[in-house]
Specification:
Layout (H helix, E strand, L loop, with lengths): L18 H23 L5 H4 L4 H22 L4 H17 L12 H12 L1 H19 L6 H16 L10 H26 L18 H15 L1 H33 L13
Helix pairs in contact: 1-3, 1-8, 3-6, 3-7, 4-5, 4-6, 5-6, 5-7, 5-8, 5-10, 6-7, 7-8, 8-10
Length: 279
């Protein structure tokens, strides 16, 4: 007979981040920040601004390598066979959920699954899960392009952030659901806004007065970007945020319970051993 579950038992983590993993995450996050925010970091006289149409492609190629390095580093740090199996199931589920409602007012149910998975399985697993899920969904939906590495990184951050929320071992019930719903709401807007940065520099300044202008000042481009977000993605981001909140509040208790039960049964922190065959 097993002992009843106590909310004060330390929650197991699928991956324990070591110094190398943390250093790799910090590196890819720093480069990723530069890849997203370079239009506001590079002055009009810089060489990057002079190659505004080339920079997103260069950053996309670099991010593919960096995300792969981070995933490999985290895997080497302790992504065992049990965690790989869990990763495969959740990534496949998330990839299958993404096409549901695609093109319809931001109805993207995969985001709520990423929030709950990151919460239960921790930030290291969350980063790998978010990146792999977005990669798999891009292959599934045919959404492969220069934006895909940016999506992988942004979703990795999105899922990792859920694993960094306070009270993973003690906070349960309604308070935890409200915390996750609030995070999902804000992070859904953040995801949409940061992904706008990945595509916005591709627009020609001659095509629209909200496009990126490499010859304009930083305040002028910031005003253009805010106008671009309001005109193009605000409604979609709101739909994504609302769907994430609704699914988190209504399905969250059951999904969290299932994920925690699977985590306890998997016993990630117990090494896998193989018995020698009997003679």
């Amino acid at each position: 007979m097993t002992a009843p579950y106590s909310p004060h038992i330390r929650q197991a983590r699928a991956v324990r981040l070591g110094p190398r993993s943390l250093a790799a995450l910090a590196l890819v996050s720093a480069v990723g920040g530069a890849a997203f925010f370079w239009p506001f970091l590079a002055p009009p006289t810089s060489q990057i601004a002079a190659h505004a149409q080339d920079a997103p492609w260069l950053f996309a190629a670099l991010l593919v390598l960096l995300v792969a390095v981070v995933a490999a580093t985290i895997s080497e740090s302790g992504l065992g066979p049990k965690a790989v199996a869990m990763l495969g199931v959740l990534a496949a589920t998330g990839a299958a959920l993404r096409p549901i409602g695609a093109g319809t007012a931001g109805i993207e149910p995969m985001f709520f699954l990423m929030v709950l998975s990151g919460r239960v399985l921790g930030p290291g697993f969350g980063f790998v899960l978010g990146s792999v899920t977005m990669f798999a969904s891009a292959l599934l939906t045919g959404g492969v392009g220069p934006w895909m590495p940016f999506q992988m990184l942004a979703m990795g951050w999105f899922t990792m952030g859920a694993g960094l929320l306070p009270g993973p071992d003690r906070l349960r019930g309604r308070a935890e659901l409200l915390l996750l719903a609030a995070y999902g709401f804000l992070a859904a807007f953040a995801y949409g806004t940061i992904m706008n940065l990945a595509g916005w520099p591709f627009m020609s300044a001659l095509a629209s007065n909200v496009a990126f202008d490499p010859d304009a000042t930083v305040p002028a481009n910031l005003a253009r970007f805010l106008a671009y977000c309001l005109a193009t993605s605000l409604g979609w981001d709101l739909g994504r945020a609302v769907v994430t909140v609704v699914l988190t509040l209504f399905l969250g208790p059951a999904v969290l319970k299932a994920l925690r039960r699977a985590t306890r049964r998997a016993a990630f922190e117990t090494p896998v051993t193989f018995d020698a065959p009997a003679e």
